[in-house]
């Protein structure tokens, strides 16, 4: 009859349990995979698959009794690191969507708002278009592979321990909010400058030729110029998105 001690069982499950919790927390908070359309069982299966495949690259995991207070602290650490890693990626997506929001408002599409199920708020059509485009771009540029690589490196940079808040003191995630405005304005400024020039031209036309109804022709001109600008600048979005994504993931390496 085969018998196993508690120490042997803990030694078997510890290399899988703690990485699995960190990966599952990441997939529950990152864009694309955290949407309601992705079933929970898919996230659980992907987390287990990634943990099994990454076992050779992971450092040795400490053996912690599951009924101790240390296990609770280790659990909190894995959830914090996984959620923060997903939060870092979500910040980059939020910066792109902010750029679309600013461009849409400058184009006069503030009234064309849609309900965003991901954030629970309202966003205009340009912001939704940018959000959908950046989701496809994230997969095309192998952003998911960069994310998994950063996740594996996080076990070397922040190994499993009973100090969950040491990670927060090291990465300082509360200062990452500035990245949203930096990336959003970086992408939106060229189009905003172009649309501002269009508005200035319309103002001059309205001053020189008062009989022309600038309100009747200004709105379609602004939208047309904005759509052309979006079409021309869309291929250039990969560079700032990739740079911002790599910069955020570098905090975990």
Report the uncertain regions: none
Structural class: mainly alpha
Tally of separate helices: 9
Morphology: elongated
Task: List the strand order in the largest sheet.
Answer: 1-2
End-to-end Cα distance = 46 Å
Helix content: 55-70%
Average of pLDDT = 82
Give the strand tally.
2
The main sheet comes to:
2 strands, antiparallel
H-E order: HHHEEHHHHHH
Description of the molecule:
With 253 residues, this protein is mainly alpha-helical. It is 70% helix and 3% strand. It contains nine helices and two strands. The chain has helices at 6-27, 40-53, 69-107, 125-140, 143-157, 164-171, 178-208, 214-233, 238-249, and strands at 113-116, 121-124. Strands 1-2 form a two-stranded antiparallel sheet. A hairpin with a 4-residue loop joins β1 and β2. α1 (6-27) runs parallel beside α3 and α3 (69-107) packs across α4 (125-140). The protein is elongated. The mean pLDDT is 82.
Helix and strand layout, with pairings?
Blueprint: H1 6-27, H2 40-53, H3 69-107, E1 113-116, E2 121-124, H4 125-140, H5 143-157, H6 164-171, H7 178-208, H8 214-233, H9 238-249
Helix pairs in contact: 1-2, 1-3, 3-4, 3-6, 3-7, 3-8, 3-9, 5-9, 7-8
Index terms:
2 strands, mainly alpha, two-stranded antiparallel ribbon, 9 helices, 253 residues
Question: Summed up, what is this model?
Answer:
The protein contains nine helices and two strands.
């Amino acid at each position: 009859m085969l018998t196993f001690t508690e120490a042997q069982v803990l030694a078997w499950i510890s290399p899988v349990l703690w990485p699995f919790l960190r990966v599952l927390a990441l997939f529950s908070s990152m864009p694309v995979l955290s949407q309601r359309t992705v079933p929970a069982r898919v996230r659980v299966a992907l987390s287990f698959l990634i943990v099994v495949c990454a076992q050779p690259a992971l450092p040795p995991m400490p053996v912690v009794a599951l009924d101790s207070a240390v296990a609770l602290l280790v659990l909190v650490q894995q959830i914090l690191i996984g959620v923060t890693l997903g939060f870092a990626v979500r910040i980059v997506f939020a910066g792109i969507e902010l750029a679309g929001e600013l461009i849409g408002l400058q184009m006069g599409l503030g009234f064309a708002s849609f309900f965003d199920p991901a954030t629970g708020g309202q966003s205009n059509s340009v912001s939704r278009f940018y959000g959908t485009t950046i989701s496809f771009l994230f997969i095309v540029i192998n952003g998911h592979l960069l994310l998994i690589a950063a996740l594996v490196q996080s076990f070397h940079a922040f190994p499993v321990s009973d100090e969950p808040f040491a990670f927060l003191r090291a990465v300082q995630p509360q200062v990452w909010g500035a990245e949203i405005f930096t990336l959003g304005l970086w992408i939106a400024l060229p189009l905003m400058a172009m649309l501002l020039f269009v508005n200035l031209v319309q103002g001059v036309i309205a001053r020189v030729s008062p009989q022309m109804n600038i309100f009747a022709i200004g709105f379609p001109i602004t939208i047309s110029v904005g759509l052309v600008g979006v079409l021309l600048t869309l291929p250039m979005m990969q560079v700032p998105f990739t740079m911002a994504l790599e910069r955020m993931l570098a905090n975990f390496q």
